[in-house]
Specification:
The chain has 221 residues and is mostly helical. It has seven helices and two strands.
Length: 221
């Protein structure tokens, strides 16, 4: 191998290393932006119109849950996600009404616009939503050190509606055994996200991709 060939190889390796480093730093920067983002003035107050009985601390907790959802979207490669919490979905919807603030947030956090998707539950006939829910479940569990396949606890976003007793919210328990022994109707188990019998697959469970993904930002239609 001559000097020219070695130079070309070294240049290619350098370019790849630079690309990977740039992507890594951009990903870290976007995560930091989400974590430290200050909600627009009045946003959390608007959420109180939906949930007047909640305390300020509980409203703040919903804000943390929505940020966990945003991180899951970024960490999942900006692939399709679905919202598992009615409370966080209410806040997300109010946030979008702050049009310019939300547009700026999406640009800095994701590099693209994240469209709103209503809150959803696992359902045999809604594979697209199931994929999105599994993706959020996987990332939220990993973030909190929970085994997403055999969980012993719920990540914040999936615990919110039950903990705060949100009317019409989505309830989850970690273990399916409790549902087989007189569990509450409509409650889902976290372990069910890895159950392929629900829709014939487990799309969205276990994938990642930094903040690369498809780049289309279609978090839902």
């Amino acid at each position: 191998m001559n000097t020219f060939d070695l130079t070309v190889i070294a240049t290619l390796f350098g370019a790849v290393a630079l690309f990977l480093l740039t992507a890594f730093l951009r990903h870290r920067r976007r995560l930091h932006y989400i974590d430290t983002y200050d909600w627009p003035p009045g946003l959390l107050k608007r959420l109180r119109t939906h949930h007047a009985s909640l305390t300020s601390a509980e409203i703040d907790r919903i804000g943390l849950g929505l940020k966990q959802f945003f991180r899951a979207y970024l960490k999942g490669g900006r692939r399709h996600v679905a919202m598992p919490s009615q409370a966080a979905d209410d806040l997300w919807h109010e946030f979008i009404l702050y049009t310019k603030a939300y547009e700026t947030f999406c640009k800095n956090a994701f590099g693209t616009f994240l469209h709103h998707t209503p809150a959803a539950a696992l359902a045999p006939r809604h594979k697209r939503n199931n994929e999105g829910l599994r993706r959020v479940w996987w990332q939220a569990c990993r973030e909190e050190g929970i085994d997403p396949r055999t969980p012993t606890a719920l990540p914040l976003l999936f615990a919110l509606d039950g903990d705060l007793k949100i009317p019409g919210g989505y309830r989850y328990v970690p273990d399916c055994k409790s549902l087989r022994h007189g569990g509450t109707a409509g409650t889902q188990c976290g372990a069910g996200f890895s159950d392929s019998s629900i829709d014939g697959g487990t799309d969205g469970l276990g994938d990642s991709g930094g903040d690369g993904g498809d780049g289309g930002g279609c978090g839902g239609d």
